[in-house]
Design brief:
This protein is α/β, with parallel strands linked by helices and 328 residues long. Helix content is 47%, strand content 14%. The strands form two sheets. Strands 1-2-3-4-5-8-9-10 form an eight-stranded parallel beta barrel, surrounded by ten helices. α6 links the parallel β4 and β5. The longest helix has 22 residues. The model has no long low-confidence stretch (mean pLDDT 96). Bound molecules: glyceraldehyde-3-phosphate, 1,3-dihydroxyacetonephosphate (13P), sodium ion (NA) and zinc ion. The site of sodium ion has 6 residues, from β3. Belongs to the class II fructose-bisphosphate aldolase family. Pathway: Carbohydrate degradation; glycolysis; D-glyceraldehyde 3-phosphate and glycerone phosphate from D-glucose: step 4/4. This is Fructose-1,6-bisphosphate aldolase. Its cofactor is Zn(2+).
Length: 328
């Protein structure tokens, strides 16, 4: 059944677990998340980016998610819009039937320019007013995702700013977070702690200087009742990179957010963990391997099946690691 994100995150907070929010763009990804959740009894957050809506088309994204609800009526499911760049985009998602929206006011509506704090407060408040009026949950973002190694935004993946930033801009300030929550009344707050979108997050296994889990603790101390969200939370498994490269891919050495760091963050109030890249890597590795080993095959179902299986295995693993088993 379709539920608000507020309901799922409140339950997660009460029971001390975190929920992976998986980005979906097509049928196989939706099926992978749903069958994984079904097998472990997990609640589901399916999120669609602007890119997903453009790729699939709005009617398809909407009806793929509605199909998931029809196929798995017993699973509580949130239909979330990822990275809304303006109140208009959020209104559009609400009109489409989404039960949760993200107003990302950390950047201007061009998705590139770093926004002022006042702008962020204003657009987020506006979205909270219209969303709460119809029972829709709002996620906001304070602080800019970016690499504390290069001091640059995460433009590499086609997202966000490529501007050079200060450490202060890339780490959410606990005091400002408290003011932001008070002034916007949002439901969930995405924070910046040194993660970035895409596969190339860290050039080495991250340590506390470049992945600031202690900042999560400080924010949680200041606003213990706010659900925190971590973006850019793929772990970029080395095995996935190895399979991709073994079967003709060309990915550079890179590291993601270790699962044990996410588990620590969950202890400090992180309730929603955004994952897209890990599914991309899993599916790409599976397709490359299948194509290489079965060069005579040409039925799309033949190679989409292992891709879907690999995505499902990844989702199942994250559900278990974040404590979702039996919580759905
Ligand atoms: O926001 C980041 C997610 O990974 C979505 O990516 O905009 O390429 O669909 P996308
Ligand atoms: P990853 O690129 O680390 O999977 O992050 C996804 C994300 O934050 C979507 O909003
Ligand atoms: Na989001
Ligand atoms: Zn994100």
């Amino acid at each position: 059944a379709l539920v608000s994100m507020r309901e799922l995150l409140d339950h997660a907070a009460l029971n001390g677990y975190g929920i992976p929010a998986f980005n979906v763009n097509n049928l196989e990804q939706v099926q992978a998340v749903m069958s994984a959740a079904d097998e472990v009894g997990a609640p589901v957050i399916l999120q669609a980016s602007a890119g997903a809506r453009k790729y699939a088309g709005e009617p398809f994204i909407k009806h793929l998610i509605l199909a998931a609800i029809e196929a798995y009526p017993h699973i509580p499911l949130v239909m979330h819009q990822d990275h809304g760049q303006s109140p208009d985009v959020c209104q559009g998602a609400i009109n489409l039937g989404f039960s949760s929206v993200m107003m990302d006011g950390s950047l201007m509506s061009d998705g590139k320019t770093i926004a002022s704090y006042d702008y962020n407060v204003e657009v987020t408040r506006k979205v909270v007013a219209m969303a709460h009026a119809v029972g829709v949950t709002v996620e906001g973002e304070l602080g800019c995702l970016g690499s504390l190694e290069t001091m640059k935004g995460d433009k590499e993946d086609g997202h966000g700013t490529e501007a050079t930033m200060t450490r202060e801009q890339m780490l959410t300030d606990p005091e400002q977070a408290a003011d932001f929550v008070k002034r916007t009344q949002l439901d969930a707050l995405a924070i910046a702690i040194g993660t970035s979108h895409g596969a190339y997050k860290f050039t080495r296994k991250p340590t506390g200087d470049i992945l600031a889990i202690d900042r999560v603790m400080a924010i949680n101390k200041r606003i213990p009742n706010t659900h925190l969200v971590m973006h850019g939370s793929s772990s970029v498994p080395q095995e996935s990179l190895a399979i991709i490269n073994q079967f003709g891919g060309k990915m550079r050495e890179t590291y993601g957010v270790p699962v044990e760091e996410i588990q620590k963050a969950i202890k400090f109030g992180v309730r929603k963990i955004n994952i897209d890249t890990d599914i991309r890597l899993a599916m790409t590795g599976a397709v490359r391997k299948y194509m290489f080993e079965n060069p005579e095959k040409f039925d799309a179902r033949d190679w989409l099946k292992p891709a879907r299986e690999a995505a499902k295995a990844l989702c199942k693993q994250r559900y278990l690691e974040f404590g979702c088993e039996g919580q759905g």
